[in-house]
């Protein structure tokens, strides 16, 4: 519906410009302004003759209703628990109103744009148009921006829409989003790794035998989290998937070497998992070739696939490789490939009638590189996955509350603050932090150091924090306010006390044994914890499916009401960063390790109870 002011301006505009195109039916008014993030600088004009693929997010007609369904089917105390929605039902709820569809189509047609493609739910329209047309359409000017690390994007800091469309369009990208998703992994091939002087070796004979502080393996995780001996039964129905971006490819021969050494019965699986290529995302069956290895690709993808398979085999694993993420484009004229990282994958996966029940993503970026409206839209699409019964897991990041000396706001004021990540701070995903050591497990941490080649390796510290965009969801209100109260004012002003806090849970994430380019090494990060946890959630789903019960779906309402009893509380360490110790782990939930690390049999029993 129009607001009063919109009606008024239409009336005025119509009188003033009677007979002119509908495009000018209402005046253009700025729809979104977003500061160019620090580290990016404008390096030149975008080539006018280049094309841009604009994605227009129409207002979803009944997102509130979708959210209500999501919370009902995910709440173990609700009678609808586990009654997940079909693709048709979700699409019905999020499709835009006929009025929004008509008005936006009319506006595009008036601008000579007729070749529109729609997402399955029609909530996104994509058009491929000359940059110049996009500039007229949005009354803006695109420029080429370059990051300190050399990446380039074609973006703008402000765009406008005719006023009568403001309530019908949530977001249009690429415009102001500088999100570049990055794998949350750190260091590799470092022998021997740094070990805390406070490390106490385990006294439990089993743990002591299978867990090596310098190189943790599936045998260690199986014992530590008590999945050892569990034989998956529902492998016909159950799946666990992981996402690859930025040209990452899970390398089969490396995976086979890893499994042959650490999970021999699973070695065949290395050649069996399907790799889906979306929007030209790379896939291959053979080893890394010389130039791929020299470029250092696939460390992230190898870690993800090996961490999942090491724990969840023989549960079928699925790999998605999405292309179109910002590549390094050194030439001002060739900056066309500027897709948003999650957009393509989400629209692909949401159109599928059947989706793997658990999906692991180890990629994230600073929340403030993403304009709020766009972050909200992406987050809403994760909610759609949740409503369909999918557990969506994201990494909490590897830099504690933020990297030293870079913890500033991006609002033009340079206010000192902690730097939360996205999508880690989206309330509809489950965010996973990292632990280290065994008895007890503590927050994963390694100080910064100079590597043999003289390069500086950043501090590694499991990420945690509070979103500045999303408010505390009801499911975590109690534990978050109690944690905030316990801080007694510490860090006041540096974080949003009323924000969605993360992570929700955690798992081992330091010095994972893994294979890359044919060689064994170790690698760390919440990028390790997230696929490991995803594999364990897949095992819980296996228990449920083999008892004829629905899968867990969106985990958080279950975790915060009952599931937390199936986790070992982590109480030592902190999310160090931003030149301070950061949020400390403590008894109960905390924004460093969430509820802690899984105890599979207890978690499975709790889940089975509903
Ligand atoms: C622990 O792992 C490191 C790194 O792989 C290895 O050098 C060391 O021998 C292992 N220790 C034991 C007791 O297996
Ligand atoms: C040692 O750890 C194993 C694996 O978690 C567990 O089954 C066993 O009960 C533990 N033993 C003792 C004495 O705590
Ligand atoms: C390595 O593989 C990539 C991807 O298939 C290919 O583009 C490249 O040309 C290959 N390089 C060599 C040296 O074979
Ligand atoms: C990858 O492995 C090949 C074959 O062993 C080796 O020649 C090459 O140096 C390795 N590359 C890197 C970057 O380690
Ligand atoms: C904020 O920092 C940026 C670069 O670090 C600088 O260009 C800008 O002038 C600063 N703004 C204020 C208000 O201090
Ligand atoms: C970050 O800052 C803290 C506190 O000032 C300091 O102890 C730590 O060494 C710094 N880390 C790095 C990697 O510079």
Automatic annotation (TrEMBL):
Cofactor details (free text): Binds 1 Ca(2+) ion per subunit.
Catalysed reaction equations from the record: Release of an N-terminal tripeptide from a polypeptide
Required co-factors: Ca(2+)
Keywords: Calcium, Glycoprotein, Hydrolase, Metal-binding, Protease, Secreted, Serine protease, Signal, Virulence, Zymogen
Cellular component terms (Gene Ontology): extracellular region
Compartment annotation: Secreted, Extracellular space
EC number: 3.4.14.10
Active site: 300 (charge relay system), 304 (charge relay system), 527 (charge relay system)
Recorded GO MF terms: metal ion binding; serine-type endopeptidase activity; tripeptidyl-peptidase activity
Residues of the Peptidase S53 domain: 215-610
InterPro entries in the cross-refs: Peptidase_S8/S53_dom, Peptidase_S8/S53_dom_sf, Peptidase_S8_Ser-AS, S53_propep, Sedolisin_dom, Tripeptidyl-peptidase_I
Enzyme class: hydrolase
Annotated binding of Ca(2+), by residue: 569-570, 588, 590
Pfam families xrefs: Peptidase_S8, Pro-kuma_activ
UniProt entry tagged with the keyword Oxidoreductase: no
UniProt signal peptide: 1-19
Taxonomic superkingdom: Eukaryota
GO biological process terms, semicolon-separated: proteolysis
Function: Secreted tripeptidyl-peptidase which degrades proteins at acidic pHs and is involved in virulence.
Listed name of the protein: tripeptidyl-peptidase II
Organism, as annotated: Lachnellula suecica
């Amino acid at each position: 519906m129009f607001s009063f002011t919109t009606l008024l301006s239409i009336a005025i505009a119509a009188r003033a410009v009677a007979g002119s195109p509908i495009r000018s039916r209402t005046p253009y008014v700025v729809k979104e302004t977003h500061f160019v993030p620090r580290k990016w600088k404008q390096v030149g004009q975008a080539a006018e003759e280049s094309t841009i693929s604009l994605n227009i997010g129409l207002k979803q007609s009944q997102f509130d209703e979708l959210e209500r369904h999501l919370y009902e089917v995910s709440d173990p105390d609700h009678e609808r628990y586990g009654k997940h929605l079909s693709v048709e039902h979700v699409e019905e709820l999020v499709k835009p109103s006929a009025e929004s569809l008509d008005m936006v189509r009319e506006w595009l047609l008036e601008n000579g744009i007729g070749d529109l493609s729609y997402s399955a739910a029609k909530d996104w329209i994509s058009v491929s148009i000359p940059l110049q047309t996009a500039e007229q359409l949005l009354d803006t000017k695109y420029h080429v921006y370059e990051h300190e690390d050399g990446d380039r994007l074609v973006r703008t800091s402000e765009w406008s829409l005719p006023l009568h469309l403001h309530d019908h369009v949530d977001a249009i990208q690429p415009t102001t989003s500088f999100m570049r998703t990055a794998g949350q992994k750190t260091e590799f091939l470092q022998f021997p790794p740094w070990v805390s002087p406070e490390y106490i070796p385990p006294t439990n004979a089993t743990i002591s035998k299978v867990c090596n502080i310098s190189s943790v393996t599936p045998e260690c995780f199986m014992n530590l989290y008590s999945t050892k001996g569990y034989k998956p039964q529902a492998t016909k129905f159950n799946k666990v998937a992981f996402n690859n971006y930025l040209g990452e490819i899970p390398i089969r021969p490396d995976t086979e070497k890893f499994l042959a050494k650490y999970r021999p019965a699973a070695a065949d699986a290395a050649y069996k998992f399907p790799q889906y290529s979306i929007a030209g995302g790379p896939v291959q069956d053979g080893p890394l070739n010389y130039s791929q290895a020299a470029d250092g690709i696939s460390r992230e993808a190898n870690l993800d696939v090996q961490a999942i398979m090491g724990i969840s085999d023989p549960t079928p694993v699925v790999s998605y490789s999405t292309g179109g993420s910002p590549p390094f484009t050194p030439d001002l004229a060739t900056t066309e490939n500027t897709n948003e990282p999650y957009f393509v994958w989400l629209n692909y996966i949401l159109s599928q009638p059947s989706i793997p029940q658990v999906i692991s993503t180890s990629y994230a970026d600073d929340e403030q590189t993403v304009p709020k409206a766009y972050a909200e839209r992406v987050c809403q699409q994760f909610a759609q996955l949740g409503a369909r019964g999918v557990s969506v897991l994201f990494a909490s990041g590897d830099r504690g509350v933020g990297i030293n000396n870079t913890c500033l706001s991006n609002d033009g004021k340079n206010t000192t603050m902690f730097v939360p990540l996205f999508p880690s701070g989206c309330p509809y995903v489950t965010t996973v932090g990292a632990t280290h050591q065994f008895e007890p497990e503590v927050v994963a941490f390694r100080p910064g150091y100079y590597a043999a080649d003289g390069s500086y390796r950043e501090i590694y510290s499991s990420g945690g924090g509070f979103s500045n965009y999303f408010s505390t969801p009801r499911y975590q209100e109690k534990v978050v306010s109690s944690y905030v109260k316990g801080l007694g004012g510490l860090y006041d002003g540096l974080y949003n006390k009323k924000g969605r806090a993360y992570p929700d849970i955690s798992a081992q994430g330091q010095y994972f044994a893994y294979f890359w380019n044919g060689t064994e090494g170790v690698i760390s990060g919440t990028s390790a914890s997230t696929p490991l946890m995803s594999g364990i959630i897949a095992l819980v789903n296996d228990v449920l499916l083999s008892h004829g019960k629905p899968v867990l779906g969106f985990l958080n309402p279950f975790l915060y009401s009952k599931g937390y009893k199936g986790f070992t509380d982590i109480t030592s360490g902190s999310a160090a960063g931003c030149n301070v110790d950061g949020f400390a782990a403590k008894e109960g939930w905390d924004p460093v390790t969430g509820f802690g690390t899984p105890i599979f049999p207890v978690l499975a029993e709790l889940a089975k109870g509903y």
